[in-house]
Amino acid sequence: xxxxxxxxxxxxxxxxxxxxxxxxxxxxxxxxxxxxxxxxxxxxxxxxxxxxxxxxxxxxxxxxxxxxxxxxxxxxxxxxxxxxxxxxxxxxxxxxxxxxxxxxxxxxxxxxxxxxxxxxxxxxxxxxxxxxxxxxxxxxxxxxxxxxxxxxxxxxxxxxxxxxxxxxxxxxxxxxxxxxxxxxxxxxxxxxxxxxxxxxxxxxxxxxxxxxxxxxxxxxxxxxxxxxxxxxxxxxxxxxxxxxxxxxxxxxxxxxxxxxxxxxxxxxxxxxxxxxxxxxxxxxxxxxxxxxxxxxxxxxxxxxxxxxxxxxxxxxxxxxxxxxxxxxxxxxxxxxxxxx
Amino acid sequence: xxxxxxxxxxxxxxxxxxxxxxxxxxxxxxxxxxxxxxxxxxxxxxxxxxxxxxxxxxxxxxxxxxxxxxxxxxxxxxxxxxxxxxxxxxxxxxxxxxxxxxxxxxxxxxxxxxxxxxxxxxxxxxxxxxxxxxxxxxxxxxxxxxxxxxxxxxxxxxxxxxxxxxxxxxxxxxxxxxxxxxxxxxxxxxxxxxxxxxxxxxxxxxxxxxxxxxxxxxxxxxxxxxxxxxxxxxxxxxxxxxxxxxxxxxxxxxxxxxxxxxxxxxxxxxxxxxxxxxxxxxxxxxxxxxxxxxxxxxxxxxxxxxxxxxxxxxxxxxxxxxxxxxxxxxxxxxxxxxxxxxxxxxxxxxxxxxxxxxxxxxxxxxxxxxxxxxxxxxxxxxxxxxxxxxxxxxxxxxxxxxxxxxxxxxxxxxxxxxxxxxxxxxxxxxxxxxxxxxxxxxxxxxxxxxxxxxxxxxxxxxxxxxxxxxxxxxxxxxxxxxxxxxxxxxxxxxx
Lengths: 340, 495
Prior knowledge:
The complex is a heterodimer. Chain A is of the alpha+beta class.
């Protein structure tokens, strides 16, 4: 219990005096009954005294906070503009907070207290507790058997109670492998119009869908690009399903399932990079001329290709299902479902 | 009045002794102790604004058509989830203020937790007897990131959907179980059955917040039981707690900090736009946008997915480990497991099994600080990879080159950081031991005649000595403290 040190400011000196007076009026517990109760804080420094300037500031801040709060209510009714509402509500909180901090630092008595830490870890009590717990087994003849049986039963009951969780969704099985595409299905664009090879221009891509099917399915959307046939670097049997150099790929990246959104098409060959479809999420980059093989990025598989053909009206149709499974990889997706 | 109120409750419940203890409860003071408090304050703002949002939001993927006030979306087909979020943002008075404040508060909460965690690691606050509370804190960080992601996904705008499909890809990539597990979560193949949004919603507004509230309760109860740590000081020792009693000063200041936190968040929510979902548009699985950036706390996961080379482990016709597993799950799991193990790593490496109530300054223990900062820099490099595509669009450096640069940096930067930080801390520590620190106000000067004279300067201490002594109580570390140190103590006490 050392007396508080004298500070440089006069107000502090005054506070010191009032602090001392106050302490004299109410004798400290140590003088009264021989020390504070166990585990309670002891006064180390104490400083109290009026600070009219701070009190005035607080009154001002409280007034401002009320005003801002009323403004908020009025604005809400009259002109609920997000910016004005934010300023009014934020301002009222700020002024109220300012008042509270000023009061805490400058107006109420300032005290620093010391408390002795209580010790944990009385070994005798720990032993007693351990004995009380194990005492439950006193006089029981087949203790280990009973405990083992109870544990096993608990696990069984718990596991059984969790079984309904299996009904949360279907088994992954065949669903992933199915897409709306099959031989002869017409390709339409986002406006439901059939697509002809001349609609796809070199250097851009268009998004296609299976006619009449849900577009929300992962297996629905495709990217259509055109590569001049002499630039294609794919085997002849893949060329056969790319009529007039139009290639179709699943729009869903086989890495994490984002939609392919970037077509990197060079302006100045051969110095710049090759044309590639790029996923904007993790930048898996698929070489278009090589039939969507991975050129860079994290994807573990190539971009699945959809075989195409033309009908007599020169509309683009699917010539079969995707050549590989679409969508993000999981246990039962194979890298080489069909040999390229 | 007050006496009667106290009497009323104490006569019936016997609360007076407990209240006496509570009001006299001692809090040590340091600016860095407020970081955790700011996280708690942000959580309270999140609950308050979240209740408002919950009264308007519809967790449904049913189709609807927009016919509201916002002209560019007129007649566009969208889900009810997206419709209701647009509606509460643009047609409900104060709705946008509440939504933006909610979003800012989520970002702030995770910033505060992360900085709080760094403070805890750097000052050695995880040491005995506080290991359990540290584990609760690390769990809180993990759960809060999950909660943030769930909230980010609810509006069903383009960014939400792009985040969710990546989450689906990562869930699918869990070895062996991934496919079935993600089908259970989504109720089928992505984008999932009609039950998915209600599931996500109840997770975001009840299950995870309930867990967070419970963990915060446990976190605070353990602090109350053990008392807060403190920095070394003239009177602060391993055996006591020195600080402000709860009542009245500390309570007022703490309440003030809550109000100021709320004020900053509402001002941000009102004045600084965040996640303008009406500009992103509704999500469909065939849509994506370039340069999409998630909330900052997901950056390290995005970076992990981007940095990973194209590696999938195949076994016969099975893909045992699909690629997103590495960056999206293995990396964060490793980060969190290391954090969980840290109290025991710290103890083993530094060979210190004693109980500690006093905190170290980061420079006091160069090796620990170096390890922590090196680890942090490792995660930070991966985090940077999450935003690297912004540079790709603004510079002529090819994306591939940037990624390769970062793949090398992920190995090199932590090593450099380790040695740089260790050296820096060592030198800071040595600086403290400089003879000028104990300067007694005398200067020895050579006279024109060739002899020496001793001058006593009354102005006091040169700046170097002051700065050193002004830290958290270096007096105790140097028992033979002279004028420099004791003047610093005086100054500190006069605050």
